[in-house]
């Protein structure tokens, strides 16, 4: 009787004690061993620091400070969620080698908004494979040899002939113009210098500023402007598609990616638009940055420039001795061993793609740390090992010396 009377008084502390017990027991059991790191601001986390622009020849303040404080594997809060960031070569290799089994591609939602939900950077599984096969079949080695190589040479000569003696120009801008024109030609048969191509290029510049900005969709922000440019670019691609599909019997078959994708009848209009836009992005941004980096590194390495010049002059001399036409062919390209070393070394030192984003699809353990399933993504920094001297010969033992 007495106990019943006291029950209302005893019950709350008893329930509280039970709750604390189960909470502690549960958290002890489930708490994963995450790498060290911080959380940053509520909601924003450390996203602003992560997105802060930095030179492509540096690792960036965000990575430098975090690695110094926590080591090469650390936790953070990026794009609204807990994230594990890795600059560790072993973990990066492990993540990429286990693609599809333990990890899958997982870019922030804002990337999907900009590149489109059918972009290869957003898709996973079967649809990703389909889109990849379409792109790879288009970029077959036969096409690279017979179509792309002569096109690259034509565009290179065109850009170089526009340079005036004694007039300074931005190598990066020229690299961007060159790769954009090359991609626009191969993707939609658009000619360099045409008003339509130039207008598309301007839209693309605005678009690109948004891809690498904070995903704030408010009037006037770079992200908002980029979404508008995306719509304008898609309108141009759509118009091209309509021109090709109307009056089918009369139309000229263009040997470009758009023509190729239109032949793949299983793809919808929306899918083709996203495929074209994301390939324009994937091919242009990366190659132009790589070209600019090569020029940057060569400027500080006269010995490598001399080596390159000798390699190319030697190829030209031998072609002339054989009585071959002047144009570059696949055999000439294959002889450019040192040129390939220069490209490899610039890609090793430069930061073309700063991060690849992956999500663990099951609980994973690596090096004593736990990478929990889902919610936590793993962003791997490309530059895991950094040796700051530009030394192209390091990638080929037959070439002695370097810078
Ligand atoms: C120096 C030049 C380039 C670099 C450094 C580069 C780098 C990369 C990287 C790191 C990825 C992986 C992204 C990820 O899985 O999260 C990627 C994917 C991709 N790149 Fe490139 N890329 C270059 C040139 C190109 C070019 C010229 C094209 C096409 C014309 C291209 C088309 C693609 C496509 C379609 C994907 C997605 C593949 C997939 O998800 O299966 N890239 N690139």
TrEMBL record:
Keywords: Iron, Membrane, Metal-binding, Oxidoreductase, Transmembrane, Transmembrane helix. The chain crosses the membrane at residues 6-24. It is a single-pass membrane protein. It is found in: Membrane. Its main location: membrane. GO terms for cellular component: membrane. Gene3D superfamilies: Cytochrome P450. This is Cytochrome P450. It comes from Vanilla planifolia (Vanilla).
């Amino acid at each position: 009787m007495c106990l019943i009377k006291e029950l209302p008084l005893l019950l709350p502390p008893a329930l509280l004690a039970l709750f604390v017990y189960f909470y502690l027991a549960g958290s002890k059991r489930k708490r994963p061993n995450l790498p060290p790191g911080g959380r940053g601001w509520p909601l924003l986390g450390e996203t602003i620091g992560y997105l802060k622009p930095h030179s492509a020849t540096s690792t960036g303040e965000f990575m430098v400070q975090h690695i110094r404080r926590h080591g090469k594997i650390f936790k953070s809060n990026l794009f609204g969620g807990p994230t594990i960031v890795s600059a560790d070569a072993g973990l990066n290799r492990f993540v990429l080698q286990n693609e599809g089994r333990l990890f899958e591609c997982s870019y922030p939602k804002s990337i999907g908004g900009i590149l489109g939900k059918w972009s290869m950077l957003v898709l996973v599984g079967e649809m990703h494979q389909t889109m990849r096969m379409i792109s790879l079949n288009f970029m077959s080695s036969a096409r690279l040899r017979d179509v792309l190589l002569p096109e690259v040479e034509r565009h290179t000569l065109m850009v170089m002939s526009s340079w005036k003696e004694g007039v300074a120009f931005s190598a990066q801008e020229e690299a961007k113009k060159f790769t954009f024109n090359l991609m626009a030609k191969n993707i939609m048969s658009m000619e360099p210098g045409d008003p339509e191509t130039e207008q598309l290029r301007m839209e693309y510049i605005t678009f690109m500023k948004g891809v690498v900005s904070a995903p704030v969709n408010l009037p006037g922000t770079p992200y908002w402007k980029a979404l508008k440019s995306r719509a304008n670019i898609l309108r141009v691609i759509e118009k091209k598609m309509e021109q090709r599909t109307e009056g089918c019997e009369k139309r000229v078959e263009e040997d470009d990616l758009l023509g190729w994708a239109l032949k793949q009848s299983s793809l919808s209009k929306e899918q083709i638009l996203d495929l074209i836009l994301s390939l324009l992005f994937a091919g242009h941004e990366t190659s132009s940055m790589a070209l600019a980096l090569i020029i940057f590194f060569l400027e500080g390495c006269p010995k490598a420039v001399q080596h390159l010049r000798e390699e190319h002059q030697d190829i030209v001399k031998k072609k002339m001795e054989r009585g071959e036409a002047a144009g570059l062919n696949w055999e000439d390209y294959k002889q450019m061993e040192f040129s390939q070393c220069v490209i490899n070394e610039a890609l090793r030192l430069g930061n073309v793609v700063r991060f690849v984003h992956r999500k663990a699809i099951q609980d994973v353990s690596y090096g004593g740390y736990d990478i929990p399933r889902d919610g936590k993504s793993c962003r791997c920094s490309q530059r895991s090992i950094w040796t700051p001297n530009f030394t192209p010969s390091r990638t080929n033992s037959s070439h002695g010396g370097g810078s």
